[in-house]
Specification:
The complex is a heterodimer of chains A (486) and B (326). Chain A is α/β, with parallel strands linked by helices. Chain A is built from 21 helices and 20 strands. Chain A has a 5-stranded parallel sheet with strand order 11-14-17-10-18. Chain A has a 4-stranded mixed sheet with strand order 1-2-4-3. A 3-stranded parallel sheet of chain A has the order 5-8-9. In chain A, helix 8 packs across helix 18 and helix 18 packs across helix 20. The longest helix of chain A is centred in the last third of the chain and has 18 residues. The radius of gyration of chain A is 28 Å and the shape is elongated. Chain B is α/β, with parallel strands linked by helices and 326 residues long. Chain B folds into 2 domains: 180 residues, Rossmann fold, CATH 3.40.50.450; 53 residues, Winged helix-like DNA-binding domain superfamily/Winged helix DNA-binding domain (Arc Repressor Mutant, subunit A, Orthogonal Bundle), CATH 1.10.10.10. A 9-stranded mixed sheet of chain B has the order 1-2-6-5-4-3-7-8-9, sandwiched between helices. Classes of the chains: A alpha/beta (486), B alpha/beta (326). At the A-B interface, helix 8, helix 15, helix 19, helix 20 and helix 21 of A face helix 13 and helix 14 of B.
C-alpha cells in the first residue's frame, strides 16, 4: 500500500515541495525513513510511533518505508512528523488517501499524540497555497499564523483529531482571528529624552530619509535611549511589509502565539559579542540573523566599536543590497535585510572622551587602534554621524521633549514628499557643496551622503528645492575628527 | 677626531654621547672610521651632516651646555631654516580638543608671521603645531628622538614628508638608531636648544614637555605656557609652569612680540546674521550644540546649518561634540 502527503521544506525563507510517501509491504516489521533526513527528522520514527499509539490508532505491523522526496534535498527539523504519521495512516487504510491529498500538513508530534507548532508555518502555508492546496493541517496554536497566508487552516490539537477530521467524523475547530488582541506594550516615547536637541533632530532626519545613524559620545548621554526610540517615529508597516517581517520571524521561531502578525516595526539590539552568523544569519540550515530580523525595522548596535571586526565587515553587504545571501552546498538562502542601522559608540576605549568631567586616559596607540577598527568603508555607510557630549545638569532638568507622535507625522509627510519627487537643487546649495568639498575633508562618498541628507532636510522643511541652509545642516552631521574624518 | 665618528660610534654602541670617550674602543673605532665613505652613504639616503664646528650649525643650539656632536638633516637643501627665528611649540601627546586647537592655531599664526616652528613630530600637540605651520605655508622643523632615517611615529610618515618639502627633519642620531624612551628627554634638549622661545600648550605633571621647558629655562630662553582649566589634569603641568613664573600665552602675538614680528591681519570672514549670532555666543567660550540651541533660541536644524557656515568660514572648529570660536 502506498500513500503520500504533501508538505514543504524550508530553505532559508524559500520553500521546496516535499512529498512524504509511505509504503507498507509484508516482511519483517520495521520502519525506515529515507530521503536525506537529518537527525531530528530521523527521530520522527519514535515520535510518530508513540503518537499513533497514543491516538489509539493502529501501528501497522508491516515493513514501513517512508520516503521524503525529492531525495536529493536535505530535510531538517520536526515539521515532517505530522505528514509522516498521516501518510502511514493513509497507507494502512485508517484514513482516506484521496481526502488527505487535498491537504498540506505541518507539525511536530508529542509522544502523547499532541501537535506542537513549528517555526516557519507562515512560509510553509504560503507555499501550500501556491501549490494549489486549499487547506493545511497544522497545530492549533499555529492556525492564526497559517491563516495569514490566505489558506484555510485546519487547527489540530491531537493526531487523533486529525484522523477523525480526515475520516469526515468531525468538523475542524474554529480558529481565532490573528491579532484580535489590543496592541502590545506601548512604544518608547521620545518625550522621555530631555535635552539633546541636536541628536533628536538627527534621529528625525534619519527616520524621514531612512538614513543610517551613528551616535558617538561618552557613556550615559542617552545614545541607547534615543536609538531605541527610532521605531516609534517611523511610519507603521504596510500589510505587505508586515507579512514580510512576520515570515522572517516565523522562520526564526520568534512569533508570539497570540499575536502572529507583526504590525510594529521590529527593533533588534544584539549584544556586541554577537558572531558573524548571529548577526547576518547562517548555520548548516541557514537561519535569519539579526539583520534580517530587523528587516523593515531598526537594528541598534550598542558599543559599535566593540563588535568583532569580521562581524562589522559582514554588515556591509546587507547595508548595501538590502539582502543577505548565504551560500551552502545544498543551495543558496536569501534573506531580506532592509533595515535602518543606528549605532552607538564611545569616542575612545575608556569612554571619557567628550566628557568634561572625566579625564580620558587612553594612550594614543589604543585610540588609533580603536579608530582603525571602524574601517572607512564602514563609517561611510552612515549618512548621519552625531557627537553627543555629556549634557550639563541644567539640561537634564529641561522640560520633556516633543512626543513621538508629533515627530512621526512630520516624518510621514517628509517621506511622502520624497517618494513623489526628489527635490531640486538651488544655485546657492550647489555652490555651497562645491565650497564644502574644497574646505572640508569630504570624500566622494561623503559628498554623496551630504547630498542625500540635504534632500531629506529640505523635505522635512516642506521645501521643493534644497537650499544652502538645508545642505549646511546636512554637512553638520558628518564624521567628527575624533573618528578620523571625513 | 671628527664629530661624525663620534656620532657613528654612539649609534653603533646604542649610546648617547656628546664628548669623545677616552677609551680604547673609541680610539680603535675612530682609526678605522672612513668618514668620506660614511658621508657618501648619508648623501645616498638624502641625509646631510652638520657637525658642531660647521659654520652652518645653529648658534642657538651650539650655545647649550651639552650640544650634540652634530645634526643629521633631511629636507630642503637650504639649512638656513635652522638659524631661525625659531620658536618651539610642544605639549602632550594625548591632548584635549582644546590643546590640539590651540597648537594648530599657534602653528598657523607663528608660521604665518615668519617664525620657524620647532616641535617633536609626536602625536597630539606636536603634530598639530607642525600642521598649523604647514597650513599657512610656513616652515617647520621636526626634531626626532631616533635615527634620522626613521619616521617615528609611523602614523606621522606623511606629515614628516610634508615637513621635509619646505622645512627640515633633524636628529642627533645616525641612521639605524631605534626609538627608545630614554632618548626623548635628550631630544627635548634639542627642541629647547634650537628655539629662542618655547611654548608649552598642554602638559600633565611630569610630562616630557615640562622637561623641554626646564631645559629652555636653564639655557635662559623665553618660556610660555598656555593657561588651561584648573580642573583639567592635562593642564596641571602648564598651570604649574605659570605659577613658577612662565609667561602666560593668551594670543600668538605674545610670542611674536619677543621676536619683534607682527601677526598677519586675520580677515573677518563674512557670515550670515544667524551664524554671526552663534559666533558671538561662541566667543564667550566653547559650547555643545545643545547648549547653543538653548542660549541662542535657534532650533537644532538652523543651528547645525549656522555651525557648518562658521566651520566653512574658518570661524569655528568642532571637537568631541563641542564647538569653539577660532
Amino acid at each position: 500500500m502506498l500513500a503520500r502527503t504533501v508538505t514543504h521544506a524550508l530553505v532559508g525563507l524559500d520553500t521546496r515541495r516535499v512529498e512524504v510517501e509511505a509504503h507498507l509491504e509484508s516482511g519483517l516489521p520495521g520502519f525506515a525513513i529515507v530521503g536525506l533526513a537529518d537527525r531530528a527528522c530521523q527521530e520522527a520514527k519514535h515520535r510518530v510511533r508513540s503518537g499513533i499509539a497514543s491516538a489509539e490508532l493502529e501501528w501497522p505491523m508491516r515493513r514501513i518505508t517512508v520516503n521524503l522526496a525529492p531525495a536529493g534535498l536535505r530535510k531538517e527539523g520536526s515539521a515532517f512528523d505530522l505528514p509522516i504519521a498521516l501518510s502511514i495512516l493513509a497507507a494502512s487504510g485508517q484514513i482516506p488517501s484521496d481526502r488527505l491529498e487535498e491537504h498540506a500538513a505541518v507539525g511536530e508530534l508529542a509522544l502523547d499524540g499532541r501537535l506542537r507548532p513549528v517555526g516557519g508555518t507562515l512560509a510553509l502555508a504560503e507555499a501550500a497555497r501556491r501549490a494549489g492546496l486549499p487547506r493545511i493541517l497544522c497545530a492549533a496554536r499555529s492556525a492564526p499564523e497559517a491563516a495569514l497566508a490566505g489558506i484555510e487552516p485546519v487547527p489540530v490539537w491531537h493526531l487523533g483529531e486529525a484522523a477523525a477530521y480526515l475520516r469526515g467524523e468531525r468538523e475542524p475547530e474554529p480558529w481565532v482571528e490573528p491579532n484580535g488582541l489590543p496592541l502590545e506594550k506601548p512604544e518608547l516615547d521620545l518625550a522621555d529624552v530631555r535635552g539633546q536637541e541636536r541628536a533628536r533632530r538627527a534621529i528625525e532626519i534619519a527616520a524621514a530619509g531612512g538614513h543610517n545613524l551613528l551616535l558617538a559620545g561618552p557613556p550615559g548621554t542617552g545614545k541607547t535611549m534615543l536609538a531605541r526610540r527610532l521605531p516609534g517615529i517611523l511610519p507603521s508597516l504596510s500589510t505587505t511589509e508586515a507579512l514580510e517581517v512576520t515570515r522572517i520571524h516565523s522562520v526564526a521561531g520568534l512569533l508570539a502565539a497570540d499575536r502572529p502578525l507583526i504590525t510594529s516595526r521590529p527593533l533588534r539590539s544584539p549584544h556586541y559579542s554577537a558572531s558573524v552568523a548571529a548577526l547576518v544569519g547562517g548555520g548548516p540550515n541557514p537561519r535569519p540573523g539579526e539583520v534580517s530580523l530587523a528587516h523593515r525595522g531598526v537594528l541598534v548596535l550598542d558599543e559599535f566599536a566593540e563588535f568583532q571586526r569580521p562581524a562589522l565587515e559582514a554588515l556591509r553587504q546587507p547595508l548595501e543590497d538590502g539582502v543577505v545571501s548565504i551560500a551552502r552546498v545544498g543551495g543558496r538562502a536569501v534573506f531580506p535585510a532592509r533595515f535602518q542601522l543606528v549605532a552607538a559608540m564611545n569616542l575612545c576605549p575608556c569612554g571619557a572622551r567628550g566628557d568634561p568631567a572625566a579625564d580620558c586616559k587612553c594612550s594614543p596607540q589604543r585610540l588609533s587602534a580603536y579608530r582603525d577598527k571602524l574601517s572607512r568603508a564602514l563609517l561611510d555607510r552612515f549618512d548621519l554621524i552625531v557627537a553627543m557630549p555629556r549634557p550639563r545638569a541644567a539640561e537634564l532638568a529641561a522640560p520633556p521633549g516633543e512626543a513621538s507622535d508629533a515627530v512621526r507625522h512630520r516624518v510621514a509627510a517628509a517621506r511622502a514628499r520624497l517618494e513623489s519627487a526628489r527635490p531640486d537643487w538651488s544655485k546657492e546649495a550647489v555652490e555651497l557643496l562645491d565650497r564644502a568639498v574644497e574646505r572640508l575633508p569630504l570624500s566622494g562618498r561623503g559628498r554623496a551622503r551630504g547630498r542625500r541628507v540635504a534632500e531629506t532636510v529640505a523635505a522635512l522643511a516642506g521645501e521643493a528645492a534644497v537650499g544652502a541652509e538645508h545642505l549646511g545642516e546636512a554637512l553638520a552631521y558628518r564624521s567628527p575628527t575624533e573618528l578620523g574624518a571625513p | 677626531m671628527s664629530d661624525l665618528a663620534l656620532a657613528a660610534f654612539a649609534a653603533a654602541n646604542e649610546a648617547h654621547l656628546v664628548r669623545a670617550p677616552r677609551d680604547r674602543a673609541f680610539r680603535t673605532f675612530a682609526r678605522a672610521f672612513d668618514e668620506a665613505a660614511y658621508l657618501a652613504r648619508l648623501r645616498e639616503q638624502g641625509v646631510e651632516w652638520i657637525g658642531r664646528d660647521d659654520p652652518r650649525f645653529p648658534p642657538l643650539l651650539g650655545a647649550i651646555h651639552d650640544p650634540p656632536p652634530g645634526l643629521f638633516v633631511r629636507g630642503v637643501s637650504d639649512v638656513e631654516v635652522l638659524r631661525g627665528p625659531t620658536a618651539a611649540v610642544v605639549g602632550a601627546r594625548a591632548c584635549s580638543p582644546y590643546g590640539s586647537h590651540v597648537a594648530r592655531m599657534l602653528g598657523r599664526e607663528l608660521g604665518g608671521a615668519g617664525l620657524v616652528v620647532v616641535s617633536g613630530l609626536a602625536r597630539g600637540v606636536d603634530g598639530e603645531a607642525h600642521r598649523g605651520a604647514l597650513d599657512t605655508g610656513g616652515t617647520t622643523i621636526a626634531v626626532l628622538g631616533c635615527g634620522i632615517d626613521r619616521d617615528y611615529p609611523a602614523a606621522h610618515r606623511e606629515l614628516a614628508a610634508r615637513i621635509r618639502a619646505t622645512g627640515v627633519v633633524v636628529s642627533e642620531y645616525a641612521p639605524g638608531v631605534e626609538p627608545a624612551p630614554w632618548r626623548f628627554p635628550a631630544r627635548n634638549r634639542l627642541i629647547a636648544g634650537l628655539s629662542a622661545a618655547t611654548v608649552v600648550v598642554e602638559a600633565r605633571d611630569r610630562s616630557g614637555a615640562l622637561i623641554t621647558a626646564d631645559l629652555a629655562l636653564e639655557e635662559g630662553r623665553e618660556v610660555f605656557a598656555v593657561p588651561g582649566e584648573i580642573t583639567s589634569a592635562l593642564s596641571s603641568g602648564t598651570n604649574d609652569l605659570l605659577k613658577l613664573g612662565a609667561t602666560p600665552l593668551t594670543r600668538a602675538e605674545d610670542v611674536l612680540d619677543v621676536f619683534g614680528l607682527v601677526g598677519t591681519e586675520s580677515v573677518a570672514a563674512e557670515v550670515g546674521p544667524v551664524a554671526a549670532k552663534v559666533l558671538e555666543r561662541l566667543r564667550d567660550g566653547p559650547a555643545s550644540a545643545d547648549e547653543l540651541v538653548r542660549s541662542t533660541g535657534l532650533d537644532a536644524g538652523s543651528l547645525a546649518s549656522a555651525l557648518t557656515e562658521l566651520e566653512l568660514a574658518g570661524c569655528a572648529v568642532a571637537g568631541g561634540g563641542v564647538f569653539r570660536a577660532n
